[in-house]
Amino acid sequence: MEERLRRWVSGIAVQSFEGEKYVHAPDTATTLVLCTASEGAFVVGPRDRARYTTGQEGRRTIVRLTPGRAQAVLDVPVDELVDQVVPLSEVWGRPVGDEAALRSALLSRLASADPGRSDLVHAAARMLRTRGVAETARALDISERHLRTLFTKAVGLSPKQFARVDRVRRVVARGKRGEWARVAAELGYYDQAHLTSEFRATMGVPPGAYLAGNLPAATFC
Known about the structure:
221 residues, three-stranded mixed sheet, 10 helices, alpha+beta
């Protein structure tokens, strides 16, 4: 990744899909998605529930904005983007039809973006991976109420929602059948039952069913 993107972008990926069931995992990040099937670029807001879809064959370029930085990059309150898919042209006022145009638009926006606007929330997002909301607020020397207000506007999810989604994503990445108790302990759940309950509420099925491919019905997208 280019050095000038590192502060603002946590990852860039290319995905190919062939109309099969596709899992849209819950996500703490706001993403920029260029999709060949729909011939355009979109802003995909954060979401605290998984979605399962099928669609046309195609290819997607996905740019994950660093949690806490999206508001400064997009210049819109991220809480207005939760569970939304918005044409990027409506946000930045310019059409984006291919990877070169997406890169150009992003770099142009970053040239005038102020990282100082997002440093505190970005720091909070990092801390919430291993600390509670109260502890994070104390570490940043702000009230819990002020943290919730700033964080929700800049990230789209409340601090508690953010921590829950981040933890479930790590379960998806690390979980193996028969190892749930170990994973629960490592990720800070009270116990395996707590992990299972939170996973089901977020992913729509228990972790064992998810790993086995027994997923909820997909909608066409």
